[in-house]
Amino acid sequence: MQKRISEKEAEVLLKEADLLRLGTLANSIKKRLHPKNVITYVVDRNINYTNVCVSKCLFCAFHKDLGAQDAYIISKKDLYEKINETIKLGGTQILLQGGIHPELNLDFYTDMLKYIKDNFSIHIHGFSPPEISYIAKKSLLTVRDTLLKLIEAGLNSIPGGGAEILSDKIRGKVSPNKCGKEEWLNVMRTAHKLGLKSSATMMFGHMEKTEHIIEHLKAIRDLQDETGGFTAFIPWTFQPDNTKIKVEKATAVEYLKVLSLSRIFLDNIKNIQASWVTQGDKIAQTALFFGANDLGSTMIEENVVAAAGVKFMLPKEEIIRLIKEAGFIPAQRDCFYNIIDTKKV
Question: What angle do CA 270, 275, 278 make, to 5 degrees?
């Protein structure tokens, strides 16, 4: 059994260990957890139902003000066409997220969920903790009651978005209008206790320091000890273009070190996902030797990271090729990491 490392040990590893040492440790853990040499992926689509957002996070190039010429709320016609195309392309789920729109109430969200379920048999992975927290407050409901209504309408699981760095010192700088660390964790805790699984994410490479990355990982590990509700962890790097935070992009080495540490530290989360969306195909492929066992989504559509000027695209066939070329067995999965298709091997 893996010996659990402490926060201090994690900080030393990230600051002092070289990349190959970290990668070797992470890869050995990955092999123990996933001995069959399989790398998974999911076919889905990111659907952003609105780009209007009151949070105005400094790192976001996607949001628009209410009343802006290019602001939108998705129509049911567009929603139908996007999901219909996703299913035709072999998609098994949609990722449903949007900005925090000040004029949308709970009825909008439940109506959207019911419309999707009435027309399609597809898994809805939707609404990050900041969205759910805002909907609850606007509706004068508890987070629990809000989640129960969303579940009744068709919500199947929750993405780990809106976490950025789970340290209020950093959140207060980069996203002061968004829910704080404890509220993010509370939404996830409540969701997990209601039977909703979720992913967890971390966006780094902006204003945080090493200790804040460790604080984030510790918060995720502690909650997983409590609930067991996280299916996967996805660290990815901040993309500064077109945003209000002017920093140099995190390097591939920095990304791989944090990815490796995540695999080492999060001993209670089975799956670590590589971020080809921010890193491109070659580094994502390399990440499979640094602790990652999953290449994430084919992302038939992605708008948020693209707004920051990063437009890597990998169709299903290309993801399969990358996995095979790295010496692994590609397998399509569902949201819960159940294998549903290995015919392409």
Answer: 160
